[in-house]
Specification:
The complex is a heterodimer of chains A (about 280) and B (about 290). With about 280 residues, chain A is mainly alpha-helical. Helices cover about 75% and strands about 0% of the residues of chain A. In chain B, α4 packs parallel to α8, α4 packs antiparallel against α11 and α13 packs antiparallel against α14. The chains are: A mainly alpha (about 280), B mainly alpha (about 290).
Chain lengths: ~280, ~290
């Protein structure tokens, strides 16, 4: 009986491990071919380890293919998006959740409806407006739409987090003579740090990976983010797998690194996003 | 306290930026799109108002109907292949004694990677001459199965779906897994005492209790399938000969490659309505089910 059980659980683990391999192997393969040159790939060594580790692929992706520029743009756009989203969403959530005014329920519902809107619906109007006010090919052409589409979920996450925070701290601070701004920045903001982490992670992943806005609103080299940049790099380097692989790795490493460091938190953030989204 | 919390100036300062940015970027453009969809307009000068003519043309547009067929087939794949796999994995991983966290973490990795990277990577996996898949088949002596997976009409559509299934299996698994973990262990104890085996527990206890979570997954997977863009755009761009084209791709090409702004906007409005209708249908479906139970 016991040996049966051992065999069964062994077989189960083998299946689970096989699936784990399927989920991760393509990424290792990517790492592998990012270090090969065409002679090696087209000469038959497709799946194996590189014979010469060509780190020069990374150097040429960074320098000749502009990937460094794309990387910096992605970092800038993503950081600005996260920062603005947090400030706007946390203040709005605070006003809706804690402050006293008519229309707060309607405001909340209106914001949440925004979660259902697919970005396809606004692509052309935004493109036309952005081109009229000469914002195409600027960082703002990405930051503003990313913030707008990130806000509903962020407001939702902040306000459901604030519900669970007891009011005593704010009351004590109010008695000490704090005004509303101090209540928010000195008392509430430190208390919602876990929600800030969740919102940051969620916003990071969605804006770092976004393609449709980026490919439509940006066509100048100086402002391309990694997703668009790599698309144009692929166009120019169609046959150089090594360099393309290096570019793909550079776009992937930051997210994977953050994930490996904070895997539980990243998982929770994305699940929290789904359950309301 | 009350006085502090009723500070009108602070409320305005806190709420208005959010409301304003959402109005300008999310709400108003939808109405503009709806207006554009009634124009015959190439983006230059002013369009002419044609009422619902674009929509009527859509109904008879074979390329459009074909793109809807493709996306519905993809919905079918997501709901009836991806989600059952995720559910099975969630149940198994939630009950496995060792390595729970390892499996969860590994299965989830593809979720965080950009569609561009996934698309490029799978393009190379599928490559007819030097791809990983064909190399693998070669090493198994299955040379007769080697083919240009994305380049030929017979396999392109299925091949274009698989990377997305692969990417999001771990996502749905994790949502379901979290749902399973939140079911109280006492219920399982009671079922075990009553003599239920693990299959009975899965079907009679876990799955019924997971219904709210499953509703989330089904909605997410369905809407995600209807809106799919990045991956197909990168993998095939809709080709060969429109075999992998979905409405989002057709919309994008109509607007930004052929400059039919009005016609493309009609497609975008169709996509919104389609998502909305499906969401409502799902709500109805799950509500009816709950009443029956």
């Amino acid at each position: 009986m016991r040996t049966m059980k051992h065999i069964k659980s062994g077989a189960l683990h083998i299946c689970l491990l096989a699936i784990a391999v399927i989920q991760v192997f393509p990424l290792f393969w990517l790492l592998g071919f990012s270090l090969k040159d065409n002679n090696e790939i087209f000469g038959g060594n497709i799946a194996g380890l590189p014979q010469n580790w060509r780190f020069s692929n990374y150097a040429s992706a960074f320098n000749q293919a502009n990937v460094l520029q794309y990387l910096l743009n992605s970092i800038l756009v993503t950081a600005a998006t996260i920062l603005i989203t947090i400030v706007l969403a946390a203040t709005a959530a605070y006003a809706i959740q804690r402050m006293i005014w008519k229309g707060r329920n309607i405001a909340m519902k209106g914001i949440l409806v925004g979660m259902m809107v697919p970005i396809h619906a606004v692509l052309l109007p935004l493109f036309i407006v952005l081109s009229k006010i000469k914002l195409l090919n600027t960082y703002w052409a990405l930051i503003i739409p990313y913030v707008a589409f990130g806000l509903p979920l962020a407001v939702y996450l902040f306000s459901s987090f604030m519900v669970s925070i007891p009011r005593e701290m704010e009351e004590a601070a109010a008695i000490d003579g704090c005004n509303i701004y101090k209540l928010f920045f000195r008392v509430m903001l430190p208390l919602i740090r876990p929600a800030i982490a969740t919102v940051s992670i969620f916003t990071f992943i969605s804006s770092w990976n976004e393609l449709m806005f980026a490919v439509t609103f940006i066509n100048k080299q100086e402002y391309k983010t990694l997703t668009v940049g790599i698309m144009s790099m692929v166009g120019a380097y169609t046959t150089k797998w090594g360099e393309i692989g290096a570019g793909l790795m550079i776009a992937t490493v930051p997210t994977v690194a953050i994930y490996l460091l904070l895997s539980d938190q990243v998982q929770n953030s994305l699940v929290a996003g789904a359950v309301k989204g | 306290m009350k006085k502090i919390l009723s500070n009108k100036k602070a409320i305005t300062l806190f709420v208005c930026p959010t409301i304003l940015i959402m109005l300008v970027i999310v709400v108003v453009p939808i109405f503009i799109s709806a207006y554009y969809s009634m124009l015959d307009w190439d983006g230059l000068g002013k369009g002419t108002f044609v009422g619902l003519r674009n929509y009527m043309e859509l109904a008879g547009d074979e390329r459009f109907v074909n793109s809807i067929k493709n996306s519905l087939l993809y919905v079918f794949f997501s709901l009836f292949i991806q989600l059952p796999i995720s559910l099975l994995l969630a149940i198994v991983v939630a009950n496995v004694k060792r390595g729970e966290k390892f499996y969860r973490t590994t299965y989830f990795i593809p979720v965080i990677i950009s569609g561009v990277v996934i698309g490029q990577l799978w393009q190379k996996i599928y490559n007819g001459d030097y791809g990983l898949l064909n190399a693998l088949l070669g090493s198994l002596h299955l040379e007769h199965l080697q083919q240009d997976w994305l380049g030929q009409e017979s396999t392109a559509l299925i091949a274009a779906f698989i990377p997305n299934l692969w990417q999001y299996v771990g996502y749905h698994m994790l949502i379901m897994y979290a749902g399973i973990k939140s079911i109280s262990p006492e219920i399982y104890e009671a079922a075990t005492i009553d003599g239920a085996n693990s299959r009975q527990i899965a079907f009679k206890v876990t799955i019924p209790l997971l219904k709210p979570v499953l509703e989330v997954c089904v909605t997410f997977s369905l809407i995600g399938a209807l809106k799919i863009f990045d991956l197909i755009y990168v993998l095939t761009g809709g080709g060969p000969f429109f075999t992998t084209e979905v409405p989002t791709i057709y919309m994008y090409k109509t607007i930004f490659d052929s400059f039919h702004y009005g016609y493309g906007s009609a497609i975008s409005i169709f996509i919104i309505l389609e998502c909305f209708v499906f969401t409502m249908l799902l709500k109805l479906f799950f509500r009816n089910k709950e009443e029956q139970v």
